[in-house]
Write a structure and sequence with these properties.
Elements: H1 8-11, H2 15-25, H3 30-39, E1 46-50, E2 65-70, H4 73-83, E3 88-91, H5 94-100, E4 105-111, H6 119-132, E5 133-146, H7 152-159, E6 167-168, H8 169-177, E7 180-188, E8 198-206
Parallel strand pairs: 1-2, 1-4, 2-3, 4-5, 5-6
Antiparallel strand pairs: 5-8, 7-8
Helix pairs in contact: 5-6
The chain binds S-adenosylmethionine (SAM).
S-adenosylmethionine binds next to β2.
Length: 210
């Protein structure tokens, strides 16, 4: 199972509840930090946001040509209602939808996606992301991470995540290196109001498919 969707988790499938939850537990504005420090979009960039949820990232990216992809029909419906005039949203599986996109991208985002994908799904997504990037383009991922040692509360909260494929930093990097020759990784320990650990990967120089 790649993600939990039952019980209390089903509440998070409501786009409003998900966005409110994100805003409540965030310390500061993690989306802005990610945008300014790692994504660094330019006006006119083609951006493909995979696992886009309700599409909130679009608010941070400025005047880009944005396509959001998510497997959850409710999130995609909400994103279309809110942002449909300025962006395209596709309801499909990450691995398959990215492969089918026409045209190349400057930036692919996988924000809180990889920990929802098992290894074969993650490999397929990373291969597809590598294939659609323009020369010089980058994939930016952001996920929760298992550390050793790790603060006990952080470990407990991460175990409760809907995504059932949280990995160590080495495991995330090893997966990404199968599709990208350059993978820079960064850890963050203070993006939520509770103890929690995240990692960011900036992936570039796609490897030629075997
Ligand atoms: C933690 S949410 C992140 C949403 C958004 N990127 C954000 O940061 O707020 C993970 C998202 O990945 C989506 N997802 C999970 N598995 C997927 C798959 N195989 N293909 C596409 N989207 C998927 C979920 O529906 C969910 O919207």
């Amino acid at each position: 199972m790649a993600q939990s969707t039952r019980g209390l988790y089903s509440l998070l499938r409501l786009p409003g509840a998900y966005t409110a939850f994100q805003q409540t537990i965030a310390r500061g504005d993690p989306q802005r930090m990610l945008t300014e420090r790692y994504i660094r979009p330019h006006p006119g960039d083609r951006v493909v946001d995979v696992g886009c949820g309700p599409g909130v990232m679009l608010e941070y990216l400025g005047e880009v040509d944005y396509t959001g992809i998510d497997i959850d029909a409710g999130y995609i419906e909400s994103a279309r209602r809110r942002y449909g005039k300025r962006a395209e949203f596709i309801c499909d599986r990450a691995e398959e939808a990215v492969e089918r996109l026409a045209g190349k991208a400057d930036l692919v985002l996988g924000k809180a996606l990889l920990h929802h994908l098992d290894d074969p799904q993650a490999r397929a997504f990373l291969r597809a992301a590598a294939a659609i990037l323009k020369p010089g383009g980058r994939l930016i991922t952001f996920d929760n991470v298992h550390l050793s040692p790790q603060r006990r509360v952080a470990r407990l909260l991460i175990a409760l995540d809907r995504g059932k494929n949280v990995r160590t930093l080495d495991q995330y990097v090893a997966l990404a290196k199968q599709s990208f020759a350059s993978v820079e990784s960064y850890l963050h320990h203070d993006l939520l109001r509770v103890p929690y650990d995240h990692c960011v990967m900036v992936c570039s120089n796609p490897r030629a498919p075997e």
